[in-house]
C-alpha cells in the first residue's frame, strides 16, 4: 500500500468509512466515488499531481474527505483556520499554492488573501445527505485547462505538505510522499491492532499530522470507521462517546486531562462504552495521568512519539500483552530508531544522545532548504532534535530538548517568530522569547523585553500587539519588562535556561 488510492481500496464497498452528527454515514464506496469526482474536477482546471491545494476548513468530516481526496491526486496543504491574514499570506505564498479550498459561506481572512495573491478559490458545498464528508466542489473561479500531470498520484508524489517551526523565524516546509503517509498509517495500524470492527472518535484538529494520520488514515487503512467531530470539547466528549460508541480515541495529554476532570460525573457512560485502548501523542504524558486514565476507563493507554517529519509515528508503547512503560514513548514502531552523538557516532544501550530515525515514513527532506537538510540528515539518519536514551529492552525515553522550539500542548511555536513581531512594536528595544514550564501544556510562551529609552508599554499592550499578528496559541502568556536581559558568557541571548534564570521555572 504505497498510494492513497490503494489505501482507499481496502474498505468494503458498503462498510461505513466516516460518520458525523447530522449526516448519513459515508461508505468506502462513497469515498472512492468522491475521490474520482474531485480528481476529475481538479484535473479539468489544470491542477494535477504535485500541485499544492491549500485547505482551510472547520474540523469535521468535510475536512477529512477534502484532505484525502485532494491528496490522492494532488498535494493537500491543510492550514489552521485560526491563522490571521499575515499568516495566511505567508503560508499561501511559501507553499506556492495553486488553489484554496474554503467552505461555502466562509468568512475566513484566507479568502481575501488568496484573491490578493491570485490563488484560485475553490468553494466546497457539503452534501451530508449523500454521506458524512460528501461535497461538491465549485471550480468555476479557475479557468479550464488541461493538467499535464493528470490522474492518480504515484508513490513518490507529494501527498501532503505541512510547515514545521524551526529555530529560525521561518517555518520549514515538510513534504510527505504518498509512500511516507501510507507507511506511517500502516505503522500506527500495526501498533494499535486496528481492524474493520474499530470505530474511532476523532477530536484532533485535521490541520495537524497527529489527527490526519493517526486519527483518520491509520484506522481507515484497515477498513474501520471514524466519527468526525468539530474538534475537542470536554463538555461534549462523554455525550459524543455515548452516541458514537467508539472503541478507541487518540488525543494530546491536555485533552486527556480535561476528559479526566469530567469522568466522575460520567461513570455510567464509561461503563456502557468500553474502550479497547486510548492513545496519547504529540507531547509527553505524565505517568500519573496515564495511571489515572487506565484506572478510570479500564483500558490500556499507549503513549506514542511522533513528529511531522516522520509523518507522525516513530515509537509507541505496545498494547497488552506487551509491556507499557509509563514515562517512555515505547519501542520503535515503524522506522528504525537509534541514538547518535554530536559527531554522528551511534551510541549504545543506556547512553544519552540525539534520537535519530530512518525508514519509509520519513520525509525525503525539507523543501528548498539545503542548510536545514544538511543539519537534519547524517549518514541517512534524520536527527529529531530530541535528546534521549534507549534501554536494554528497546524502550525510548526523551530526556531533554535540543531544539528551542516551544511545545505548547503539541503545538510547536518558533520563538524567533514571536521575537520579530515584538521587535516591530515601536517601544521594544530588545526581546527574547522562550518556553516556560506549564503543568498541563508542557510549555507556555514567555518573553523578556527591554523597552527603548524614553518609551513605555504595558504587558497587555505588548500581548495585544502579538495577538493581532498570530494565532492565539502563539501569544506569550507572560511578558517580563526588564532593564537588562541575562546573557551568556559570549554576550549572546540564550533561550535555553532563560525561564530558570528569571525565576519562572
CATH fold-level topology of the largest domain: Rossmann fold
* Corresponding CATH superfamily of the largest domain: ANL, N-terminal domain
Mean pLDDT: 92
CATH architectural grouping of the largest domain: 3-Layer(aba) Sandwich
By CATH reckoning, the class of the largest domain would read: Alpha Beta
How many individual β-strands? Answer: 26
Contiguous low-pLDDT stretches (5 residues minimum) are none
Using only C-alpha atoms, the radius of gyration works out to 23 Å
Main sheet overview: 5 strands, mixed
Can you tell me the number of structural domains? 2
Strand content: 25-35%
Instruction: Count up the helices.
Output: 15
Strand order of the largest sheet: 4-3-5-6-7
Overall geometry: globular
In whole angstroms, the N-to-C terminal distance is 47 Å
Helix content: 25-40%
The SS-based structural class is alpha/beta
